[in-house]
Design a protein that fits this description.
19 strands, 578 residues, 23 helices, globular, alpha/beta, 16% strand, Rossmann fold
């Protein structure tokens, strides 16, 4: 018997699968972790990533050179305590960003350098791919961590690891390598979403041991000539109220390193900034908070520190930092906020004041040096000298304490560091541990974008040359940045001569250069200021208007001196030299 025919129902067509790709997963990983701004330079293979990130609501700031974009990302990390992100192309672009990445690591700024790269199978066989380079291997020695993502499903983990590495423990730079083929990889959209990682508690508190806290306070209490030194790590910690309470409760004179200026105002009665040489030489117990005994503090030894026996208390999150140059009698390991809170709690309701003779001696030396310097800031010499010009900027910052000061150069840096008082934390940004020239425009751009504040960038004419083309970037994004270039026609001074031939001396630039014309070329405001009065009017107008402005401040070519030596950080040394 024939089998009965069985009717078959046609199969339902499968629902179209939603897909995603590497481009979108990178963008979603950034957004999920709160990244709102990318600094970079477009080009193969990351141009489309920048376009798509911008369309997705991330602000993408496009620079003229990757190094400047990297400096912007680095200082964004310092200001926000979140990793600043710099995006570059492969090989040359990656190398341009590498200086900034190393700078971020050295200065403990959280930053992620994201670079496109060539394909592994060609790079590893050295077959000559476009911009072929083993970028991961090159980056590893120069940053805190380095990762490569080869598969789309690992993008979430890759960014999570980079973010956590950048901000946990001692912050620093991280490199993330994204080969070109990764961006075009396609996967199921739902699986892609599930592969993303939101980083939780990326920089957990590290609580100091109670016996370490007691040891530190016992040593401080025994001091006859105590000193507190605040570094940029203390400013980065954003534990401003606790640090102020600790300093004031202790009654100890404090010395702020340059990027810690403003944690307490430089005009605070305990501030020993104008008595730097005295307090370093004569102190007997020194509490280091967020600063290292590197070259900026003469490694904790030598003539700078005098003959008096020293004992150090050091607050640092990195145990290996202790005893790096001299013996640390009381190491306090933990994050700065937790350590300072623990010190305050253990101090109790009342704390003995330091000896009056020490406090009085520091105060007298500070006031004496301030009084000796004051007439120099009133100079009306034409052409201007550094002190007359800095006297103007000193008053501008005093009237606008919430403005951000960016500072780099030789004399323009050395003298401004002591001349311009700061009143609020994280308002002074400068060259950092390495003394890197060229940070100016990148820092200024990021400071304006991350804070929304007016920015005053005080630049030596040589330092400005490293990043000067970014004035176009400032104009393009209409940022409230006022650049003052101390133009003395050269490096240190513009009067050197070449005795051996017709070429200019190696330190001399074109005489009478008009940097203000550069700003005008891009639609900004350019001003040539030849007197302190002209400089004051121009800076005030720029800070009031918020328009991109460049002021060419004409300085006497003979006014400068060869700088960059430790002695130039000391007000007493400046007085002796003059």
């Amino acid at each position: 018997m024939a089998e009965a025919a069985v009717a078959k129902t046609p199969a339902e067509p499968k629902a179209e699968q939603e897909l995603t790709d590497g481009f979108h997963l990178v963008i979603e990983a950034l957004k999920l972790n709160g990244v709102k701004t990318i600094y970079g330079v477009p080009g193969i293979p990351v141009t489309d990533l920048g376009r798509m990130a911008q369309a997705a609501g991330i602000r993408v700031i496009s620079f003229r050179h990757e190094q400047n974009a990297g400096y912007a990302a680095a200082i964004a990390g310092f200001l926000t305590r979140k990793p600043g992100v710099c995006l570059t192309v492969s090989a040359p672009g990656f190398l341009n960003g590498l200086t900034a990445l190393a700078h971020a690591t050295t200065n403990c700024f959280p930053m992620i350098l994201v670079s496109g790269s060539s394909e592994r199978e060609i790079v590893d066989l050295q077959q000559g791919d476009y911009e072929e380079m083993d970028q991961l291997a090159i980056a590893k020695p120069l940053c805190k961590a380095a990762f490569r993502v080869l598969h789309a499903q690992d993008i979430g983990i890759g960014f999570a690891r980079a973010i956590r590495a950048a901000v946990s423990g001692r912050p620093g730079g991280v490199y993330l390598d994204l080969p070109a083929k990764l961006f075009g990889q396609v996967m199921n959209a739902e699986a892609g979403r599930k592969s993303l990682v939101k980083v939780i508690d990326a920089a957990p508190a590290q609580i100091p041991a109670s016996d370490a806290v007691k040891r530190a306070l016992d040593l401080l209490k025994s001091a006859r000539r105590p000193l507190i030194i605040l570094g940029k790590g203390a400013a980065y910690a954003q534990a401003d109220d606790a640090i102020r309470d600790f300093v004031e409760k202790s009654g100890v004179p404090f010395l702020p390193m340059s990027m810690a200026k403003g944690l307490l105002p430089d005009t605070h009665p305990q501030c020993a900034g104008a008595a730097r040489s005295t307090v370093l030489k004569d102190s007997d117990v020194v509490v280091l908070i967020g600063t290292r005994l590197n070259w900026l503090l003469s490694h904790g030894k030598g003539k700078t520190w005098g003959e008096a026996a020293k004992k150090f208390v050091q607050v640092d999150i990195e145990p290996k930092e202790m005893d790096s140059n001299v013996e640390i009698a009381a190491p306090l390991v933990g994050d700065i906020a937790s350590c300072v809170a623990a010190l305050l709690a253990a101090m109790g309701g009342k704390w003995p004041s330091p000896p009056a003779d020490w406090v009085g001696a520091v105060s007298r030396k500070r006031e004496d040096n301030i009084a000796k310097m004051a007439p120099r800031f009133m100079s009306n010499a034409v052409p201007m000298d550094y002190y007359g010009a800095l006297g103007v900027l000193r008053s501008v910052v005093k009237e606008r304490p919430d403005a951000i000061l960016v500072n780099e150069g030789a004399n323009a840096l050395d003298l401004a560091r002591g001349a311009i008082d700061m009143y609020q934390p994280r308002k002074r940004l400068d060259v950092g541990t390495w003394g890197v020239m060229g940070i100016g425009m990148g820092y200024a751009i990021a400071a304006a974008i991350e804070t929304g504040k007016r920015v005053l960038a005080v630049e030596g004419d040589s330092a400005f040359g490293f990043s000067g083309m970014e004035v176009e970037t400032i104009c393009r994004y209409r940022l409230p940045v006022c650049i003052v270039i101390f133009n003395n026609d050269g490096i240190y001074r513009g009067t050197d001569a070449n005795p051996a031939g017709t070429d200019p001396a190696t330190t001399v630039f074109v005489k009478g250069s008009r940097y203000d014309k550069m700003m005008e070329a891009f639609g900004g405001v350019g001003v040539n200021a030849t007197t302190p009065d002209e400089l004051k009017r121009a800076v005030n107008e720029a800070m009031d208007s918020g328009k991109p402005t460049l002021i060419n401040a004409v300085i006497d070519p003979a006014a400068g001196s060869e700088s960059g030596r430790i002695g130039n950080l000391n007000p007493q040394s400046v007085l002796k030299k003059k």
